[in-house]
Amino acid sequence: MFAHFDGSGCYLRGVDTQLLDRRAFFIGGRWVTPATSERFGVVSPSTEEVVGHVPLAEPADIDRAVAAAREAFDHGPWPRTPPAERAAVLRRTAALLRERIDDIAWVTATEMGCAISQAPQAQTGMVGPVFDYYADLLGTFELERRVITDDRAGLVVQDAVGVVAAIVPWNAPVTLAAWKVAPALAAGCTVVLKPPPEAPLSGFLVAEALEAAGVPPGVVNVVPGGREAGAHLVRHPGTDKVAFTGSTAAGKQIMTLCADRVTRVSLELGGKSAAIVCDDADLGLAIPRIVGGGMHLSGQVCGAHTRILVARARYDEAVDAAAAVAETIPYGDPFDPKTVVGPLVAERQRARVEGFIEAALAEGARAVAGGARPAHLPRGWYVPPTILADVHNDMRVARDEVFGPVLSFIPFDGEDDAVRIANDSRYGLSGGVWTADPGYGLTVARRMRTGSVAVNGSYPPFPLVPFGGLKESGLGRELGPEGLQAYLEPRSIGVPPSLFGGAA
Ligand code: NAD
Q1: Contact (CB, 8 A) for 478 and 265
Q2: Is the overall model pTM greater than 0.70, yes or no?
Q3: Ligand 1 in contact with 171 (CB < 6 A)?
């Protein structure tokens, strides 16, 4: 463990600056020199200063990483290693990543601005558990099954899908890498992981843990890079599956590229999720949870509930309560342990979020909290926790993903109206229902066209249950047994029934 926080803001003291200064890619089990000697400056969203340097992948680096993964899949031991041995490697990886939790928190705070206080939820808390979960699942998951009738028999085998291109965004780079790498390894796949240029540093910590855990050479290769590197990886004939998390726009392009070779693809994309606050809801419970959830990671969360639909009779009360909560949320320096909301990841992201707020105000919305750039934070890409009232579902702020600390409050009249507004979106990732009657909440939840819904909660994903989107929020599921199935290809082998003890 290298990172060190002394609580005084002097967070660089005692830190191994190697974590910010990377010169090699992890390919074929070795740290190899990149194709170019140029390095990319990683900019801190809180200071706007260059704080680290990394190589970014050129096509030649991607080619090398895919070749290593291909070799490891076609000729290496990993796909043929017994599941129990693969599980042991996953468990060692989980333990090693747990040992580096402080480093992951510190590095992600540095590269993408996640408040240190929020790191356990967003950046570190699920990483070890996901590797452990897939290790455990290998003990019970049916990788083969025999089928026998009076005159037919067969064996259904589940083989690893092959070389996986795993592409992750900057908002939770290690967590989302774990969601892909852990099930892919459990299945016997090999992986090329491409972290994003906005948050390239934390991927090296994943590589170090996998190396120390004894993952055989070439089984996981880590090459941070930009869009072009990602597109080159997706198009690469050496890959068999693309596992992508990112924007819906990029997901559509990737799906098109995958069509060319009928490459398997799973897409975890954007969202515009609704929380329905029923007229019997306990607002004292609901509003702090809704506002806290919506502001988490400065609102840069795909499954954030950002359209807050409130029964008209409780609307004004809910808006006032939300404004009061938002005004008290500490925001600013992500390294201050009291901070809850840090900066946005990039200047362009702040400009985008401010554009949404301006458009909403021009269309008749009211900012009852936040809304303007904070004067006391002249450096860093900050947007204060913002609550917008009088929003209509046809406003841009309610249609498109903002990916910032902005919640839109919309009134509804009755259950059908609430469900209609909630489902009136091109996205379908997440959602919530708040009510004094959880049984009724479940009824409403069943009517919502989203991959996950929470009754009286924000339902952060956890390893045992699948996560993913309907409609333009994605294709396929991560986590749960479904997340392992995504890296397996079922094959049927017909055999004479006598082989399985049937009639000759
Ligand atoms: P992005 O789509 O710009 O980039 C995501 C990743 O894909 C990065 O590594 C990027 O370099 C790469 N990439 C971009 N275009 C590509 C292309 N054409 N081909 C191959 N690779 C490409 O997204 P972002 O701005 O980094 O992340 C924010 C988005 O991610 C939001 O829309 C958010 O909702 C989404 N997201 C979804 C989930 C989920 O589970 N559904 C989770 C987190 C984030």
Answers
A1: no
A2: yes
A3: yes
